[in-house]
Amino acid sequence: MSSSESDGMSDVEEAARAAANGDDSSNQEENGSGTDVDEEQDGQAENGTDVSKSWEDLGLIDTLCTACRGLKWKAPSKIQREAIPLALQGKDIIGLAETGSGKTGAFALPILQALLDNPQRYFAVVLTPTRELAYQISEQFEALGATIGVKCCVIVGGMDLVTQAIQLARKPHIIIATPGRLVDHLENTKGFSLKAIRYLVMDEADRILNMDFEEEVNKILKVMPRERRTFLFSATMTKKVKKLERASLRDPVKVEVSSKYQTVEKLLQYYLFIPARYKNVYLVHVLNELAGNSFMIFCSTCNNTVRTALMLRALGLAAVPLHGQMTQNKRLAALNKFKSQARQILISTDVASRGLDIPHVDVVLNLDIPMHSKDYIHRVGRTARAGRAGQAITFVTQYDVELYQRIEHLLGKKLPEYKCEQDEVMALQERVAEAHRTARIEQRDIEERKASKGGKRGANDSDEEDTEQFNGVRKRLKPGNAKGGDRGGRGGRGGRGGRGSKRGRRN
């Protein structure tokens, strides 16, 4: 082959030709694939990984098998064993498996193999409900396809449209997108079309097909070819999925490795029944009891996420918030701090409840109980992933009993109570109450700062609560540190009241 012909081919086309000639450089990489994962083997076996079945047994080519071992995926999980051979046969698939069981690999590997067989740009679209999950799936595709030069493009809200349009103009092989932003590009980006797409994947399909995304999904399906493969994957399924199954899948095969809604066996689940007024005190007690672990705390609202993070910081605990009102760059920064273990506590709304794979999460705390019981499955699935152990504790107040009973009904079992010594918990009451007051004052400062900026600039700064510049709150609260002006005066008075007379009167 001449050099000019070689220059005109994409990386994937070159890799496809090399694979056809038997030159997939698997021998060169073999040394790198012998990673020692024996210590994880037992756990993986318990999590549905059959170590007697290899990646080659599923029908994958050597290049992809080597890539799997390079990621320390020693052997396929249940969902991968069931789904990959069917996908390689060209079947449409509905995959139902508990969270943390390797669903991303179950659809990524067949797509990459099909891409090698028939290289083309705009080959597959993966739809996800959250931006963070889109970036994570992109990382998985790029890691698995590193040796074959796969180009991915992430299209999500909160990022610059023009920059994304330029990325799309380069014609990536795989597009990972949230439905709303993909529709924006279909309607506004010249030259962009999905007419040639060969594969459509909906990850967390039940969430994508709910009312929030229904209109966008219908628009996307209308501009896609009927001759395509469609994969739906989730830990939970709904009637909407059955509706789409009839509408846009051709003779789909249902791969169901869990017959009911369930969590992995190595996840220890508890509930903690508490008075609503002492919820923060119990939270701090549990964090102290389980100190040294990595925590994800779920709250129901953005405001509560920020307030809880500020309260924990005031107590000297390194916490970072993550919620939907932050800009995308700040959301990614918060997630990266937690992933790199620079922070041990991530406090989030349900924006982080689905699909995110952060291996070192030891404990999930449901500070606010989820309104929909299926969301519980996704939240607690952030821990005990890929055969590891984990804990989940759900805080249940007198107002949450009915919601909690729905969760137990969904799981089909009663959860044990997490035992706390009430005297030890109440000993923290004063410190937590003071930190909570501090957090409320700081949150009010942030809101005033936003309001005073207003306009477009205010919108850009709307997520400044994610930065960690607000630990000086207690300094401002000290008498003598109030620097004139309305805000400083209020901070000083609040601090003196909190430390002195008010506490005396309450006790």
Automatic annotation (TrEMBL):
> A GO molecular function for this record?
RNA binding
- Write out the ranges of the annotated region (Disordered): 1-52, 439-507
Q: Which SUPFAM superfamilies match?
A: P-loop containing nucleoside triphosphate hydrolases
Question: Residue ranges of the DEAD-box RNA helicase Q domain?
Answer: 53-81
Compositionally biased, Polar residues: which spans? 23-34
* Superkingdom as given in the UniProt entry: Eukaryota
Q: Known InterPro entries for this protein? A: DDX47/Rrp3_DEADc (IPR044765), DEAD/DEAH_box_helicase_dom (IPR011545), DEAD_box_RNA_helicase (IPR050079), Helicase_ATP-bd (IPR014001), Helicase_C-like (IPR001650), P-loop_NTPase (IPR027417), RNA-helicase_DEAD-box_CS (IPR000629), RNA_helicase_DEAD_Q_motif (IPR014014)
Q: Which parts of the sequence belong to the Helicase C-terminal domain?
A: 266-426
Annotated motif Q motif, positions: 53-81
Q: Which Pfam families does the protein's record reference?
A: DEAD (PF00270), Helicase_C (PF00271)
* Domain Helicase ATP-binding residue range list: 84-255
Known catalysed reaction(s)?
ATP + H2O = ADP + phosphate + H(+)
Q: Which family does it belong to?
A: Belongs to the DEAD box helicase family. DDX47/RRP3 subfamily.
Know the name of this protein? Answer: RNA helicase
